[in-house]
Amino acid sequence: MAQQKYSLEEIRLRLNELDDNLLKLFSERRQLSIEVAKSKVETSKPVRDAEREQQLLVKLINAGHDKYHLDAQYITKLFHTIIEDSVLLQQSYLQNLANPELSRKPLARVAFLGAKGSYSHLASREYFSRKNMELIEVNCGHFKEVASTVESGHADYGVLPIENTSSGSINEVYDLLQHTTLYIVGELTLPIEHCLVATNDIRLEDIKVLYSHPQPHQQCSEFLSRLEGVTLKSCASTADAMKKVKELNRNDVAAIGNASSGKLYGLQSLQSQIANQTENHTRFIVVARKPVEVSSQIPAKTTLIMSTTQHAGSLVETLLVLQRYGINMTKLESRPIMGNPWEEMFYVDLEAQLNSEHMQKALAELTKITKHLKVLGCYPSENVKPTQIKL
């Protein structure tokens, strides 16, 4: 048997050195990304250059394979993360130039659903960490309170979940947007990792009561159908559910939540990955009292609401306007108009910059053929799609 060349302690020391070097290189690369953004201000080039990204990835994959014996999947996954970070960093720099008053605010008062550890809380921290802003956290008991807290000026921003890949649209939030004076100024997609948490390591068959927000109940319905004799109880948020389980401190109650959030309440994970879909994501929107200016160099989304006339084909007529101007629609959601039976309000997400010529022409035409139309906001698209390459 060959003698090991290095001791475990020596290997760990070398790994620590390499990790420090990687951190230094990551930092240097980020600084260069900012320099790239500065050069794009002068040239008015868009943040993303698909051809350049493709060439870079192919070059890295080939070099990694030929020189360092690294597989393509490993390199692709690693550099997708690095490219995503670079894109978001450049977008943030350009947005600060377009909205100088925002860049001067180191603190943000943010309203969200639930207590510390709720998914809305996690989304708030993730979104504003990208902006290098410190948070003053404002906990709210329901979605309407989030909106009213921002509308009244007691918070600068509100974070609201709008749709989930498993349970679909969150109708309560869509209905809220129909009446609010707020604007959508940002978005974030957060991976949702549901697990079962309890105060002790109890058996699943001993659980009699299970607490959570109604959305996780829907998103984990297949797992819950296999639990016999369990009563489902709803809470305002997953964080409130975990707090309730901690307070009860019983061996027959559990909650659905996030494992890391559960630790905040002294709970332990009984079973992970209990959602119906392995890839479970929730899209959140960020709302504020004033709209933001979106740099023309940044991929943008525009969200609007509209109601159409009651004649046949009226909705199709509006969609044909979007098609004529080459505007891609990523979401179409209908909700009843309160007080107007059988009438619908349509929510539309568009991949478009509000101030672009084709978007302005489309809005002018839509205004003529709809009963009501309102732009809820134009904001940077922060869902950075992975670079596609052909090997």
Automatic annotation (TrEMBL):
Gene3D superfamilies, per database record: 3.30.70.260, Chorismate mutase, Periplasmic binding protein-like II
Segments forming a coiled coil: 1-35
Entry EC number(s): 4.2.1.51, 5.4.99.5
Catalytic activity: chorismate = prephenate; prephenate + H(+) = 3-phenylpyruvate + CO2 + H2O
GO terms assigned for molecular function: prephenate dehydratase activity
Record key words, sorted: Amino-acid biosynthesis, Aromatic amino acid biosynthesis, Coiled coil, Cytoplasm, Isomerase, Lyase, Multifunctional enzyme, Phenylalanine biosynthesis
Pathway(s) it belongs to: Amino-acid biosynthesis; L-phenylalanine biosynthesis; phenylpyruvate from prephenate: step 1/1; Metabolic intermediate biosynthesis; prephenate biosynthesis; prephenate from chorismate: step 1/1
Predominant subcellular localization, coarse grouping: cytoplasm
InterPro entries assigned: ACT-like_dom_sf, ACT_dom, Chor_mutase/pphenate_deHydtase, Chorismate_II_sf, CM_dom_sf, CM_II_prokaryot, CM_P_1, Preph_deHydtase
Chorismate mutase domain segment(s): 2-94
Subcellular location: Cytoplasm
Domain Prephenate dehydratase: 109-289
Domain ACT: 303-380
General function of this protein: Catalyzes the Claisen rearrangement of chorismate to prephenate and the decarboxylation/dehydration of prephenate to phenylpyruvate.
Protein name (record): Bifunctional chorismate mutase/prephenate dehydratase
